[in-house]
Amino acid sequence: MTKRGCFITFEGGEGAGKSTQIRLLKAELEARGYAVCATREPGGDALAEGIRSLLLSQKMPSRAELLLFLAARAQNVETVVRPHIEAGHIVLCDRFTDSSIAYQGVARGLGRDSVATLNDFATNHLVPDLTLLLDISPEVGLSRQQDKNRMEAEGLDFHQKVRQGFLEEADRDPKRFRVISAEENIESLHAKIVQIVLDVLQS
Fold it and tell me: Which among 59, 66, 84, 154 has the fewest CB atoms less than 10 Å away?
C-alpha cells in the first residue's frame, strides 16, 4: 500500500482512450491492494456533473466556458480529489488543469499564462504527482468518436492546436509528464501505463 496519497491525471485529445485506460488502471491497482478513486473533469460530484452537462451541450463565449470549467474543477478538488489524497488513496482524474491550458488557453486563444494562473487559484495550488499524456493525432482521435459533444464537433484546426498545447505543457514539465502514443492497441497502452505508475508509486 502507498503511504501517502498520489494524484495522477490523464490528458489528451478527443478519442485518446483516457476513460478506458483509467478504468483498466483502477482495476489493476485495486487488485494489487491500493485504494483508488477515479474521477473526471468536468465532473466528480453532483454539482460539477451539472456544470459538465452545460459545458458539453451549450455554446457560450470562451471566457464563460473557461470559468465554468474552473468552477467545476474547484468543486471536484475540494469535495473529491483532495479528501481522497489526504486519506492516502490514489486519485485518477480524467482531465485536469492541462486541459484548460490546451483547450481554452491555446486553442481558444485566451492565453496560456492567464489560464495557468486561474487554474492555480481554482485548485488551491494542487499539482498532480504524475500526468499521463495520451498523445494522438486529431484525425485518428476524432475518427474514433461516435456521438460528438460540443468540443468534439470543433474543426480539425482547433484540435491540432489542442494537441500542440498539450505537447508544449509536457515540454515545460518533463518531470511530471509522461507522453505515450495512444494510437497503439489498448492492451499494449495499458501495460505501459501500469509500469509507469508502479514505478512512481514504488519510488
Answer: 59
Helix (H, G, I), strand (E, B) or coil at 62: helix
Residue-wise pLDDT tens digits, 117-176: 999 999 999 999 999 999 999 888 777 766 666 666 788 899 999 999 999 999 999 999
How many other CB atoms are found less than 10 A from the CB of residue 157?
Answer: 10
Q: What are phi and psi of 17, to 5 degrees?
A: 90, 25
- What is the bridge-based pairing of β-strands 177-181 and 6-11? unpaired
Angle at 15 between CA 42 and CA 122, to 5 degrees: 20
Ranges of the chain with pLDDT below 70: 1-3, 145-152
Contact between 150 and 103 (Cβ < 8 Å): no
**Going along 53-97, which residue ranges are E strands?**
90-94
**Which residue in 27, 5, 114, 21 sits closest to 66, CA to CA?**
114
Q: Which cell numbers hold the place of 37?
A: 478513486
Burial of 63: CB neighbours in 10 Å, binned 0-12, 13-18, 19+: exposed
Nearest to 75 by CA among 97, 42, 98: 42
Q: What is the pTM of this model?
A: 0.93
